[in-house]
Amino acid sequence: MENNENSKDKQLDQFRATNKGEKMTTNQGLRVSEDEHSLKAGDRGPTLMEDFHFREKMTHFDHERIPERVVHARGYAAHGYFELYESMKEYTKAGFLQDPFVKTPVFVRFSTVAGSRGSAETVRDVRGFATKFYTEEGNYDLVGNNMPVFFIQDAIKFPDLIHAVKPEPHNEMPQAASAHDTFWDFVANNQESAHMIMWHMSDRAIPRSFRMMEGFGVHTFRFINEQGKVRFVKFHWKPVLGIKSLVWDEAQKIAGKDPDFNRRDLWEAIDMGDYPEFEFGVQMIDEEDEFKFDFDILDPTKVWPEEEVPVKIIRKMTLNRNVDNVFAETEQVAFHPGHVVPGIDFSNDPLLQGRLFSYTDTQLIRLGGPNFHELPINRPVCPFHNNQRDGYSRMTINPGPVSYHKNSIDQNTPSTATEEEGGYVHYQEKVDGRKVQRRSDSFKDHFSQARLFWNSMTELEKEHINEAFSFELGKVQSKDIKQQVVNMFANVSQQLGVSIADAIGVKGPKDVKESSVTKSSLALSQEANPIKGVATRKIAVLAGNGFNGKDVSKIMKEFEKAGTRPEIVSDKQGFVKGDDGTEMEVSHTFLTADFVLFDAVYAAGGLSVNPKVKKEAVYFINEAFDHFKTVGASHDGVDLIADLPADTGVVTEASPSKDFADTFLNALAEHRHWNRQV
């Protein structure tokens, strides 16, 4: 066996290669002079197709995994519709944005980015928020995230980013996590990521639910109306339930207790009729105001502060139907930011320009060829006609001899459409510049908006960001990388840099000039903009035989009336019986459920007799308390929370009055009781 192993090693030696000390080349051996910037027509111009290095690099990256997506592999989706509040005819000629009385069907896929298809869903990560609109003018795809900016400015660096954040290739660890050396080495050496990292270290990276996170188109697009008036536009999804997050310890425990937590939440909400709703908004800038701001509006690492460019809410999306088959729909759906309709066009954002190539290329390897548009989930609701033929998985049967343009046999059909007939006409932007591999100087400010984000956070949110940095960098092995990151983020905040350094055992930042940015944006803070409510929140009702049937039944009805989802947790499955003969079906046991899977806990009684069961219930309650959740108790359930300190999120009443449920629900509406934070 030893000889065979040695022979195999020798066989593999010819394929082993090291890059150390070598010059970069293409796969054909051509030396590369530039690997940071794609080829453009001028500093701020569009990316050019002749950039063979970009295409080779991106094509190789797009084809690295089979069959799951290279990124966004772990996803879940639902069907729905959206309808306008008002016509947008003044701003765009897009047909689906004209009539408030027309419902447009949609398909939305939520996802994590870094993990494999089998990874946990509550990891610290960006979340994808991709929406396919089945319009009468063709499919329109808004392929966004739950954060409005991105790590990089040019698509040529996307393979580098994902290679860095994916499991390290020498040992394939860690899965679905950014807390490791290669990711933070990338961050420290690619400082354009500073703003995005601030979002990534914030609570936005661990959303409570897909239903409770914002969505953003990230890039700058164009609206064009019938008169040819052009406006730059950014797209927003705002959840009706508000933006809510997990706490980090909770997120990690959920990953073990229920790695399907987010998809289960979406499935169950729709299944029970609690349809997720998102309002759709746009930020618009007149073309003549493009250079009016202290940032480049085409830079994907920058936000347009809502105080400077307000979000106009124009419609609402409702998700009301679960998929019938996850593979056929969720896995086979193919999104592409280049799927647009008349009235929506692109900007020269270099990250967007690269995505316009990459997404189609990705589908070719994932879905087996060029006919992925024929899969049911991808087919438009309007008919399609062209001269494209054959290929893998072709379903359309085209009779006749003609498959080319121009022709006389079929009277030159299918024929192109004029703009007046709905034909898509690209915006005729004037482009003037040398072919260069550079980035505009207006993209070089990497810290001002990272500082803007930091300034906009509440003290609580700053503490969470600090803790996130300390955890992530605490997992990094290289002290040199740790020091580089500390020095980098001292440019955002000296206070943050010092605090991180202290937590991870490296030197505090020196000779770093404190940022002079004092501007803040209230809209960036989720804690400063709370939407309070209890609808769809899950309450664990801890109950055993002998609970007060009359009072608990009333309280349960009030919970349900308010739109919450109370579920009985006990020591055994089946039914628990109250002192008046009332029976309630047990949804979970302490073995099959966990405190992290609920938004609040109510100890109803009947569990204090058995010491073992009492111990389990007390642990359940104490952990919920430690995660800042509302806990309540009545009757002998009060015994279970006797050791908890009194605060607004602890609601007890031995003989509950009719106000007990209201007090409990008001506390639950706060989402978390941060006064417990030490």
From TrEMBL:
Signal peptide: none
Biased composition (Basic and acidic residues): 1-23, 32-43
Catalyzed reactions per annotation: 2 H2O2 = O2 + 2 H2O
Region described as Disordered: spans on this chain: 1-44
PROSITE patterns registered for this protein in UniProt: CATALASE_1, CATALASE_2, CATALASE_3
GO CC, any one term: cytosol
Keywords for this protein: Heme, Hydrogen peroxide, Iron, Metal-binding, Oxidoreductase, Peroxidase
GO terms of biological process kind: hydrogen peroxide catabolic process; response to oxidative stress
Numbered residues of crosslink 3'-histidyl-3-tyrosine (His-Tyr): 336-359
Chain ranges of the Catalase core domain: 25-413
EC number(s) from the headed UniProt entry: 1.11.1.6
Active site, UniProt feature: 72, 145
Entry GO MF terms: catalase activity; heme binding; metal ion binding
Pfam families for this protein: Catalase, Catalase-rel, Catalase_C
Binding site for heme: 69, 109, 158, 355, 359, 366
Cofactors that this protein relies on: heme
Transmembrane parts of this sequence: none
Biological function: Decomposes hydrogen peroxide into water and oxygen; serves to protect cells from the toxic effects of hydrogen peroxide.
PANTHER family: CATALASE, CATALASE-B
Similarity remark: Belongs to the catalase family. HPII subfamily.
Name of the featured protein: Catalase
Organism: Domibacillus aminovorans
